[in-house]
Amino acid sequence: MASVLKKVHCIAEYCGNCERCTLAKAGKKLHLAMSSLTASKPLEILAIDVTVLQKRSSGIENVLVLTDVFTKFTQAIPRKD
């Protein structure tokens, strides 16, 4: 049990000291109402998101995520830029 608590503490400390996370969250308070997207056929609604990760040695730091709302098929595409 103590090792689990130590891991949780280490993860919380790492996340709290992450410069990218701190900059992204600085001063932002979002209170958005949740809503659902309903599609009646494949590819009618395509949800698109870009997320920034820690830069890898290969230069990859962005991931483009595409999700078909009807089928829930998701594709993640790593990007250098």
Mean pLDDT reading: 81
Strand order in the sheet with the most strands? 1-2-3
**Strand count:** 3
Computed over alpha carbons, the radius of gyration is: 17 Å
Along the chain, the helix and strand elements come as HHEEE
The helicity comes to 25-40%
Share of residues in strands: 15-25%
Structure report:
The protein is of the alpha+beta class. The chain has one domain (2-79). It has 2 helices and 3 strands; from the N terminus they run H-H-E-E-E. Strands 1-2-3 form a 3-stranded antiparallel beta sheet, with no helix packed on it. Strand 2 and strand 3 form a beta hairpin. The longest helix has 16 residues, at 2-17. It starts with a helix and ends with a strand.
Brief overview, please?
With 81 residues, the chain is of the alpha+beta class. Helices cover 28% and strands 25% of the residues.
